[in-house]
Write a structure and sequence with these properties.
Blueprint: H1 2-22, E1 30-31, E2 37-38, H2 40-55, H3 60-65, H4 70-86, H5 93-117, H6 121-148, H7 174-197, H8 203-219, H9 223-240, H10 244-260, H11 275-293, H12 304-310, H13 316-319, H14 331-364, H15 370-388, H16 398-410
Antiparallel strand pairs: 1-2
Length: 414
């Protein structure tokens, strides 16, 4: 028993270190060539997962095989692998190696769900505070960036868009940052209600952080982020039976639009800008053209950049520096194009089972318990991300994927 506890303590410490690398975002990226990068969070997750596997090897069947998400996850992994094998001859060895590395990374991130699931309920409550600190750091860095580094013009040559006068924090992209701020705000809202039920004094500490996180959403000027926020708040309000939350957000949003309308002459912060909408439409058209030629198993999981070059939609020189060319702006079109109709069905099945699992936990947990509120947070977050993924490829963005799998692991009551 003492030995088992010592093993779990070691895994918990490495999990804390792993979360610490999260706040680096896209600031530190090790280039391995051909626009393939590895980040601190990737290295930390590899170490964490390997240590976890070595420590819980004897009980892995109980943790993994008995979970209701195991079959949907395995099916997705199998189809992703098959799509790569089928398309192996269509791309160079190095291109397939890059695609396969992203395939392994997806598996790595999924494993984080089982890592968190294996923790004790006591440590899961500690993770709540760790996530609280992590998000606060991300918000704080966002405000520092907003006031002292208002655009990415000097990094344009590295493939980053300018994003002038917008908050993007360490993600270097206001749309993905906006999506994460929404996830964090929903998480804070769940914790606020949980602390209120416990009559905890910590509620007064979290309220200003919650207010700042909402301000952060608005300062990204991300329309997809705002739509996601409305969606997530609507779901949260219904599940928690607090409709006034949704009405309050509507009011705040109306005030924000009214105030920011004075600056709509600046294209980057004009909520009714057309250029980005047109770019998304073109992105969707490209994906549909690729889908038509690869209907059943797609072009291969995460080979989308190379497929665009192959079919003449992008040049090799411009695509090598662009971050956007790795995927399309719609996550579901991305799955359809890279894994075909078979992969899309399997992926939708995975999302459906995630929602089923979260809702089942929501129904069975005791009222006002930690897992009850986290279940509401998961349902609201996944619902919001699904909507957001129609505008940006958020379902495959590293930091968002990691956050969702961690939250999903927290709803288990061990």
């Amino acid at each position: 028993m003492v030995e088992k506890r010592r093993k779990m303590d070691m895994i918990q410490w490495f999990f804390v270190i792993f979360l610490g690398t999260f706040s680096f975002g896209e600031l530190i990226r090790l280039s391995l060539g051909n626009n393939f990068f590895i980040k601190p969070v990737d290295i930390a997750s590899i170490v964490l997962v390997l240590i976890w596997i070595s420590k819980v090897f004897k009980s892995w069947k109980k943790i993994i095989l008995n979970d209701k998400l195991f079959i949907p996850i395995i099916l997705f992994i199998a189809i992703a692998f098959i799509s790569l094998v089928i398309n192996f001859k269509n791309f160079s060895f190095y291109e397939m190696l890059v695609a396969f590395s992203y395939f392994l990374r997806w598996i790595l991130y999924v494993t984080l769900f089982f890592v968190v699931k294996s923790f004790s309920s006591k440590f899961k409550e500690k993770i709540m505070y760790l996530l609280l600190a992590l998000g606060t750091i991300f918000v704080a860095l966002g405000f520092v960036q907003y006031f002292f580094y208002s655009n990415l013009r000097n990094l344009y040559y590295l493939g980053w868009d300018e994003h002038m006068y917008r908050l993007f924090s360490t993600f270097l992209d206001p749309n993905f940052a906006g999506a994460f701020f929404v996830l964090y705000s929903i998480f804070l809202l769940g914790i606020l209600l949980y602390f209120r039920e416990k009559n905890s004094k910590n509620i007064w500490l979290i309220m200003p952080i919650f207010a700042l996180s909402i301000v952060s959403i608005f300062l990204t000027y991300s329309r997809s982020g705002l739509i996601m926020f409305l969606t997530s708040i609507a779901i949260f309000s219904i599940l928690s039976k607090k409709i006034y939350l949704f009405l309050a957000v509507l009011l705040v949003l109306a005030v924000f639009v009214l105030i920011s309308s004075r600056s709509f002459n600046i294209e980057n912060i004009n909520l009714f800008r057309i250029a980005s909408a047109e770019a998304r439409i073109e992105s969707a058209k490209t994906a549909i053209q690729i889908i038509k030629k690869n209907m059943f198993f797609g072009v291969g999981f995460n080979t989308y950049r190379y497929a665009q070059i192959k079919y003449g939609f992008r040049s090799a020189s411009s695509s090598s520096t662009s971050h956007a060319d790795a995927g399309t702006d719609n996550s579901f079109l991305f799955v359809f194009a890279t894994m075909g109709i078979v992969g899309l069905i399997i992926y939708l099945n995975l999302i459906w089972n995630i929602l089923k699992k979260a809702y089942a936990n929501f129904k069975k947990q005791k009222a006002n318990s930690f897992q009850k509120y986290i279940s509401i947070v998961v349902l609201s977050s996944v619902g919001g991300i699904i909507v957001d993924s129609f505008f940006i490829n958020s379902l495959f963005y590293s930091f968002i994927v990691i956050w969702i799998w961690i939250l999903l692991g927290l709803i288990e009551n061990n």
